[in-house]
Write a structure and sequence with these properties.
The chain has 455 residues and is an alpha/beta fold. The protein has three domains: 86 residues, NAD(P)-binding Rossmann-like Domain (Rossmann fold), CATH 3.40.50.720; 208 residues, UDP-N-acetylmuramoyl-L-alanine:D-glutamate ligase (3-Layer(aba) Sandwich); 137 residues, Alpha-Beta Complex (Protein-Tyrosine Phosphatase, Chain A). It is 34% helix and 22% strand. The chain contains 17 helices and 20 strands. The protein has a nine-stranded mixed sheet, with helices on both faces. The protein is globular, with a radius of gyration of 23 Å. The N and C termini lie far apart (56 Å).
């Protein structure tokens, strides 16, 4: 991409925005980084940006920012509907996501993963599987490392595993991974995208540019992803826990089997798999297919699949206190993800849920709470609605506890209520922004409080 001497506007002062600004400067552009917040309200250090000669603009984003601008690089957190970007489109100024910038810079092929749930686990596992075969592997995207930084570092003979969110796809037109996967699509981010249809369309952009020689991995058991095969130009490979497909990855007699081009390759038994729960069997199947298409052999995969224990904040074991196990599932920011966590445990759960309410339907979630949860402890802004929905779905009123905006009270109450063989589980089914800066901060606070119970 030729940017030398051209004016580039980066919108959004976060991880992606910083990465985009640095790369644009490296390519010789005159860079302005703008954020609608004031500098004092942003928890970032701008010293590096200033040292690189990036012009910083905080507060109201006036149309004057667009004067002479050749390209706008937009962070995932910034919706395209903001007035400045509407004006940019009216002026025919190109708007690009940091993900598309990364693709334009990448030398190595990209294997990209999206879906409502399971992205981080699957991307992390895929990265480890690729490392079993390739000397140089990068893992980035919506996983905490900007994809553009990874794209610059990995040589052509390496491989890149990318976690991609619907937000990142919103300003992306020409992103073209060699291998793509859509794990599932359930209601989420409707406030941002406006409808379930638009949300799904953003997910489908991940494979829109793929061609005949590429691969698309889809979840056969998810009706919405299964139907995406009709719109794909790439070779489609399904995975399924419930159907004995003739092609793809299947679960037979407790083992994952890979079927492709006339071969039937036993990969690993579910008992040997390092990550637990039905949802993680699906995540593993997707990663196995993607790694296979990238050239990784089954023999190279097997040790990784046995050793991988999952990612932080996703059904993460914390400790055992007085015979009761504690798990951190802060990454469960929607009901579908929380449902998968509830399905993992059989002996009764003390559940801590609630947070920044996404206002999705709670019926299925609360029916499972009624079946599996012995005590429901509710925190944050969603507590009242969750309480009412729990009662509506038959959860015993005496087993519902509201503790306000206090994780300290929630953990203390869970500890007081829990008895062997119950499990204490933080699986909020909500975003975290009513109490924290993100789900990782929430999860780490929970873990520190649990560890404090042992002192």
């Amino acid at each position: 991409m030729e940017l030398k001497g051209k004016r580039v506007l980066v919108i959004g002062a976060g991880i992606s925005g910083f990465a985009a600004a640095k790369i644009a400067r490296k390519l010789g552009a005159e860079v302005t980084l703008s954020d609608a917040k004031q500098e004092a309200d942003i928890q970032e250090d701008f010293q590096e940006m200033r040292s690189l000669g990036v012009h910083l603009v905080f507060g109201p984003q006036e149309h004057a920012l667009l004067e002479g601008t050749y390209l706008i690089l937009v962070s995932p957190a910034v919706p395209l509907r903001i007035p400045l970007l509407k004006e940019a489109r009216a002026r025919n100024i190109r708007i690009m996501s940091e993900v598309e910038l990364a693709y334009s810079l990448a030398k190595a092929p990209i294997a990209a993963i999206t879906g409502t749930n399971g992205k981080t686990t699957t991307t992390t596992l895929l990265g480890l599987l690729l490392k079993a075969h390739y000397a140089s592997v990068g893992v980035g995207g919506n996983i905490g490392v900007p994809l553009s930084e990874v794209a610059e570092e990995i040589p052509a003979e390496g491989y890149i595993a990318a976690e991609i969110s619907s937000y990142q796809m919103e300003a992306t037109e020409h992103f073209h991974p060699h291998i793509a996967a859509v794990l599932n699509v359930t209601p989420d981010h409707i406030v941002r995208h406006g409808s379930m249809e638009v949300y799904q369309a953003m997910k489908e952009r991940i494979f829109r540019e793929e061609i005949e020689g590429d691969y698309l991995v889809l979840n056969y058991d998810d009706e919405k992803t299964r139907g995406m095969a009709e719109r794909a130009k790439a070779q489609v490979a399904f995975f399924s826990r419930t159907q004995a497909l003739r092609r793809g990855a299947v679960l037979l007699d407790g083992a994952i089997i890979l079927r492709w081009e006339g071969k039937e390759l036993p990969v690993i038994s579910v008992k040997e798999l390092g990550i637990k729960g039905p949802h993680n069997v699906e995540n593993a199947m997707a990663a196995i297919l993607m790694a296979y298409f990238a050239g990784v052999t089954v023999e190279e995969m097997q040790p990784v699949l046995k050793e991988f224990r999952g990612v932080e904040h996703r059904i993460e074991y914390v400790t055992t206190i007085d015979g009761v196990e504690y798990y951190n599932d802060s990454k469960a920011t929607n009901t579908d993800s929380a449902i998968k966590a509830l399905q993992t445990f059989d002996e009764g759960i003390i559940l801590i849920a609630g947070g920044d309410d996404k206002l999705t339907n709670l019926t299925e979630f609360m029916q499972l709470v009624k079946e599996r949860v012995h005590h429901l402890i509710l925190v944050g802004a969603a507590a009242e609605r969750f309480h009412q929905e729990a009662k509506k779905n038959g959860v015993d009123e005496t087993h519902i506890h509201e503790v306000g905006f206090s994780m300290e009270k929630a953990v203390a109450l869970a500890h007081a209520l829990a008895k062997v063989p119950e499990t204490v589980l933080l699986s909020p089914a909500c975003a975290s922004f009513d109490m924290y800066h993100g789900m990782a901060e929430r999860g780490r606070h929970f873990k520190s409080l649990v560890q404090g119970l042992q002192r």
